[in-house]
Specification:
This protein is an alpha+beta fold. The protein has two helices and twelve strands; from the N terminus they run H-E-E-E-E-E-E-E-E-E-E-E-E-H. It has one domain.
């Protein structure tokens, strides 16, 4: 009886002191997308939000998307990254989220040939991943036709790419584990030079080399 009383008292003390003891597994706060990928207008349109309806639900809704969702809207004005940082409350398991709407707008003046999503910190088998164990449902893109998929990275490629002043839409899942206090979702577009541009660059470098040899 004394042992039971002692345990009860300890639990009361832990709660009163603010120590985490299996609280609800929710994302408690999220920042709007920020970073060098967008400077000036229309960066005010960058938004992000997470909705948690079912904490600790990892793979519970498979096959199909999670009941927990997140929305992200990003405007890029330069070829660089934007970050969304989420604050996490510890829980008794993994909470899975699905992107109902991730809209990324190209205002960089060039056509994107690739787009990359990554999770930070990228620690092997830490539980923070793009639903890598079950992959349900598969990640999708409205503009890219192929995907290189890993635990903490989604590399979208192929297809027509994303022209200037054009949006691209993505869907994917994120597993948020117990034991982390925050994580960052990073998005970054890239532009791969066309073969003709590479040939022109190679010819220019070769010509420069010949010119140097001629004048040496």
């Amino acid at each position: 009886m004394r042992a039971v009383r002692l345990i009860a008292i300890l639990w009361v003390v832990l709660f009163a002191s603010g120590v985490s003891v299996a609280r609800a597994g929710t994302i408690t706060a999220v920042t709007n997308p920020t970073g060098p990928g967008c400077t000036g207008l229309p960066c005010a349109g960058n938004t992000a939000s997470f909705l948690t309806l079912a904490p600790n639900n990892d793979d519970a809704s498979d096959p199909g998307p999670s009941d927990n969702s997140f929305d992200v809207t990003e405007y890029f004005t330069s070829i660089n990254y934007l970050d969304v940082t989420a604050t996490v409350a510890n829980s008794a398991g993994v909470t899975e989220y699905f992107s109902l709407s991730v809209a990324v707008n190209n205002d960089t003046g060039v056509t994107w040939t690739d787009f990359h999503w990554s999770l930070i910190p990228a620690v092997f088998l830490d539980g923070l991943d793009f639903d890598y164990a079950s992959i349900s449902p598969d990640p999708t893109s409205s503009a890219f036709t192929s995907l290189i998929y890993s635990e903490d990275k989604l590399d979208f490629q192929g297809g027509p790419g994303v022209a200037n002043n054009t949006p691209v839409f993505f869907t994917f899942s994120i597993d948020v584990p117990d034991g982390i206090s925050s994580f960052t979702l990073r998005g970054v577009p890239t532009v791969v030079p066309e073969p003709a541009s590479l040939l022109l660059l190679g010819s220019g470098l070769a010509g420069l080399g010949l010119w140097r040899r001629w004048h040496s």
